[in-house]
Amino acid sequence: MTADFRHFYQKDWAERTALVAEQAQLSAAETALFKKHYDPKHREIIENYLTDYAVPMGVAVNFVVDGTPRLVPMVTEEPSVIAAASNGAKIVKRAGGFSTSVTQRAMIGQIVLEQVDDVAATTQLITAQQTALLAVADAAHPSLQRRGGGARQLRIRRLGQGYLSIDLFVDVQAAMGANMLNSMLEAVAKSIGVLTKHNALMSILSNYATASLVRASCRLPVSLLQAGRYSGQLVAQKLVAASTVAQLDPYRATTHNKGIMNGIDAVAMATGNDWRALESGAHAYAARDGQYRGLSTWTLTGQELVGTIELPLPVGIVGGSIKINALAQLNQRLLGVTTATELAKTMAAVGLGQNLAALRALVTTGIQQGHMHLQLKSLALAAGATTAELPVILQRLEQAPQQDLATTQQLIATLRQSKEETHD
């Protein structure tokens, strides 16, 4: 039987859940999960709303960024991410913490013209009217100027095949800025259409935020890197080698950068920022010279390991979903940030700290040693273990020849049976 989903978006919440339950043949207990995590406010945020999907939130500790201690909230379902970030930050803290810098903070949007026959003449027309066009942009969002922001620059790029991109640079102040930038772009596009007699193909922000680059670095005496039987000097050398491989090989660089973004995305989610935008921009920046490379680099200078990372982080502390997400606002207080720039700097430091911990583990004990204990926790919970049963189940699971769902379920059943026999 197929449910009727016509005009689904017009139906109320009860009708939607009933239709979904019918289509998927859900039990009453399964359908009840929708109501358990239901929030009426969220019907106004997304379309066809059913329920909330919860992701755990924790805090990474030990971060010192530009001399300021930071408690870093992170939202992630992946084990080891918060532990690794805290571990990397602990090492860096002993060396004085992370240093960061931001040279510019602006969002970039594109107005794309097509079938431009005389590129030079069109470019000249637009360039001559740049001041007036920037004024048009500001008039589309006057409150931004009052807060100290506004349109800053127009850049014209020839894309080939008759396409021209007019790039608008806007200082969006504390916001992520997507909506205000798109409004400004559409206003400028109309003026350019009148000026050049070319209608815009599209006007849209770019998530390749090269005008919002953030840099973080740290300098570590090699003695801080000692791990088990591995001397600090050897760990540093191996870490530099691993960093080099991530610059040479896109297969390795992809995983290298995924680890970095584990941390950055988790902070983005915790603060109500658009982590998909950050992901797309970061990976584009990793391929800016034509080859995809690691976003961070590690070098050895005498007895010091030097780590650096640079990537676009166009984040905000106001606007978007932040204003209606109480936890996002609370997490800003946990972080202690008061500007979008401070948030971006902290996120870059998190990415570098995450990378340090991952590479140090990779070149010494291997990534699985610490990771597997946390994975086994997830396995035990998925198999139905209670939090009270976890310590015993984990101990037995670590000693088991096979560590899978069936084995874990059998261990839980055995434990519960032994408890019943004890009570009898």
Comma- or semicolon-separated keywords:
single chain, 424 residues, alpha+beta, 3-hydroxy-3-methylglutaryl-coenzyme A Reductase, Chain A, domain 2, Alpha-Beta Plaits, 4 domains, 15 helices, 49% helix
Written description of the protein model:
There is one protein chain. The chain is of the alpha+beta class and 424 residues long. The protein folds into 4 domains: 8-42, no CATH class; 57-100 and 212-365, 3-hydroxy-3-methylglutaryl-coenzyme A Reductase, Chain A, domain 2, CATH 3.90.770.10; 107-206, 2-Layer Sandwich (Alpha-Beta Plaits), CATH 3.30.70; 370-423, Helicase, Ruva Protein, domain 3, CATH 1.10.8. It is 49% helix and 19% strand. It has 15 helices and 10 strands. Strands 3-8-10-9 form a 4-stranded antiparallel sheet. It has a 4-stranded antiparallel sheet with strand order 5-6-4-7. Strands 1-2 form a two-stranded antiparallel ribbon. The chain starts with 12 loop residues before the first helix and ends with a helix.
What characteristic shape results from the CA principal axes? globular
Most strands sheet: 4 strands, antiparallel
Helix and strand content put the structural class at alpha+beta
Could you name the ranges where pLDDT drops below 50 across 5 or more consecutive residues? none
**Order of secondary-structure elements:** HHEEHEEHHHEEHEEHHHEEHHHHH
Mean of the pLDDT scores?
94
CATH topology label of the largest domain? 3-hydroxy-3-methylglutaryl-coenzyme A Reductase, Chain A, domain 2
Please count the helical segments: 15
The CATH superfamily label of the largest domain reads: 3-hydroxy-3-methylglutaryl-coenzyme A Reductase, Chain A, domain 2
CATH structural class of the largest domain: Alpha Beta
* End-to-end Cα distance: 49 Å
Radius of gyration: 26 Å
Proportion in helices:
40-55%
Count of individual domains: 4
Strand order, largest beta sheet: 3-8-10-9
- Going by CATH, the architecture of the largest domain would be Alpha-Beta Complex
User: Which band does the percent of strand residues land in?
Assistant: 15-25%
Q: Count the strands?
A: 10
